Structure of Extracellular solute-binding protein:
Amino acid sequence: MITFQRLLAGACATSVLMMTGAATVHAQERVHVLHNQQDAFIREVWDELRQDFQAQNPDIEVELEFMDDQAMQQRLPTLLQASVKPNLYWSFGGDDYRMRAQSGLLGDITDMADGLRGNIPEGILEAYEVDGRLYGAPYRLAGVGFWYNRDLFEEAGVSSDDIETWDDFLDVVQALQDAGITPIAAGGSERWPLHFYWTYLAMRTGGQELFEAILNDEASFVNEHYIRAGEELQRLADLEPFQSGYMGFAYNEAAGVFGNGNAAIHLMGEWDIGVQTSESESGEGVSGDRLGYFNFPAVEGGEGDPSATIGGVDGFAFTSGRATEESVKWLEFFLAPEQQSRLAAEGIIIPVANGAQEHMEDQHLQMVAETIANSSWHQVFWDQALGASVGGVINDMSADLVAGRVTPEQAVQQIQEAWEFR
């Protein structure tokens, strides 16, 4: 869209050029954004928003750069200390974010954030505050649960309504096996998709109080509840529920297995709605009434509330020395209720901006949002909340438990050692 102001500016520049015969170049401030977004449709919508912003702000050029999650995480530590780096990048809150802010690697936007504070509830914005200072802002809420293919469930004669406990879930997995259906898609090569199983089981067996006691160094990861979490995960692994060669599959590839209807279940966040669609051969994935959702079930005898959820808030962090007024202005625009409402209506996010959630039309996002709203405890992903060093060990141990490379006792001991040396 070309605004009147932009046309007027162009006319004035032409007049000056004609009068003086000298070329005038209008400088643009550049805002560089780095993100791990892989969904092609979402990228297209973001680019449309970028164009809208630039039409309203012709003095600012926004560059959206995308790379896969693994490459981005490997590059970030070096990138954040480089002289050439993005203005802002995708980031969770959590321990890594806090440490980067305290180490001077992030840019403080506290004194430029009035617009952000007006758009986003303070309780959500606090996820990006460190010691009372703001270094970024949230983009969306996230929640992890079981996505399933209703057609394959019906073929196996099972129903999600019958899954109240972990034992019920294992019975469904076995029934799918017996029907000749691969029960679960999993991306084992990146490890983090498997950590959802162990951390959910730990939450169900140990509960919120135990986890918070560990965070305060008042308890240890080496406890009977977390050992049991490993035992229960290995009970699942013993059923051989995943697609053949799952340890060699990246997340996107596993999402494609589910989207193609080659596995009945995928434990993943709400972003999987789009990824399993775009990664499917048909480009349609498992959609409409064929796509079902349920929360992680209770563990019998466990002390955790079965309504608790894993997910969190993810968004953007500013880099040190690059938190410019222009970059804050872009993020303020991107996170404003108008843009968040559009993204919500497109079925892309569970939004964080004031009033935007009421624009969600996607039934599946509504399921996730309702599950989070009804949870007694919504815990940020453990591999983010506990920092890279501890989170990496949890991811590794989850994969090793599934592969039978460690015992449940060895797994929690290694996690505790990482916690002590963090």
